Amino acid sequence: MDARNHTLRLFAVWEQALVARDFAVPRRAELNPPLWELGHVGWFQEYWIARNVQRQRGARCDPRVLRLASIEPQADRWYDSGNVAHDTRWQLDLPGLEATKQYLLETLTVTLELLETPRAAVDDAAALYFYRLALFHEDMHGEAFAYMAQTLDFGGAALAALLPEPPPRAAREPLVFPATRWSLGMPQQAPGFVFDNEKWAHEVAVPEFEIDAQPVSFGQYVEFVEDGGYDEPRWWSDTGRAWLDAAGRRTPRHVEQMRGGVLARRFGRLLRVPLTRPVVHVNCFEAEAWCRWAGRRLPTEVEWEVAAASGALRGWRWGEVWEWTASAFRPYPGFTADPYRDYSAPWFGSHQSVRGASFATRARMRHPRYRNFYLPERDDIFVGFRSCAV
């Protein structure tokens, strides 16, 4: 109920901004048609819970099993993200706003009724698996509504009130962590839900490392820009330079001024950004370029996890922006895909591992072992980075 209420509060901002133009948005890789995104949330929940005759088996469910019929006969044709190609979603004969909301209400009602059955009512990991998967899936799409609104430059004070940012805090000195052997990933006895790409814990040798206590700030990034960082080829990888030449970027996305203070657009408003805030809307190429300029490097996934799990009492801060790591998104040893096959496996090798959380991430999604992942050129999400000593 909390996830659904949050989704609808976020979408109310979309209604105010876009209902007059029938929710039309540009066809771009980082966007989805808003009514498709909303309907997909309900479809995913219904597909894996109400329509899934093996839902009680949890991660042992056979995803190929025949599903029960949907409340909406056209639901699979409209909302199945695994079979409805992204570029075709703008041509779908999607239902209107009220019909979409009714579909969400009806699917949620059935979900809640099923959740009250005796077997699901107890804390049985298998019986609750798909309820938790649907919950976190909706949380992810709620954050997507936030960063899509940022991309489309609307939302203003309404979205800022729903997604408050923490106040700026003073910088802390980098932290040094001694060499260790770290259990990377979630232990098999972990209670609650575990995503397949977090399975299972395995020991990794970690040499001593120094890491920033907080993400790189706008103030630190301004120095890179003022020093001609976007124009110096030696700071950029070949792939990064190709992206830079194509994009013509000279500041992070949504930033309109960096000299004499930072002015950036946030949900349709031009705001002066405190220099102590983490730099945001930079892609992995920009993060790597800053690190080379500064004589530092991005942390690996395991370094980030070690610091996040054991550095809180020493001043480690995270959770304002997602953070790029130096690690490609790859499976842990012995990986096997969970029933939702499209979640992790298709993206191994092409995406970059991202850790942490942003101000728009729900609290229940914030965990130091949670693995997020994006294409390295993505800068529309609320993402920044921190650095390590070389």
Question: Can you walk me through this structure?
Answer:
With 390 residues, the protein is α+β, with helices and mostly antiparallel strands. The chain folds into two domains: 2-162; 175-389, paralog of FGE (formylglycine-generating enzyme), CATH 3.90.1580. The chain is built from eleven helices and 13 strands. It has helices at residues 2-18, 34-50, 75-79, 97-115, 118-121, 125-152, 156-162, 218-226, 238-247, 284-294, 301-310, and strands at 175-177, 180-184, 202-206, 209-211, 255-257, 262-266, 269-273, 296-297, 322-328, 352-356, 372-374, 383-384, 388-389. It has a four-stranded mixed β-sheet. Strands 5-6-7 form a three-stranded antiparallel β-sheet, covered by helices on one side. The chain has a two-stranded antiparallel sheet with strand order 1-4. Helix 1 (2-18) packs parallel to helix 6.
Number of helices: 11
Low-confidence stretches: none
Sheet with the most strands? 4 strands, mixed
Label the CATH architecture of the largest domain: Alpha-Beta Complex
What structural category characterises the helix and strand content?
alpha+beta
State the CATH class of the largest domain: Alpha Beta
Radius of gyration, CA atoms, in whole angstroms: 22 Å
CATH topology of the largest domain: paralog of FGE (formylglycine-generating enzyme)
Topology as H/E string? HHHHHHHEEEEHHEEEHEHEEEEE
Work out the count of structural domains: 2
Determine the mean pLDDT. Answer: 96
What spatial order of strands do you see in the largest sheet? 11-10-9-12
Strand runs, count: 13
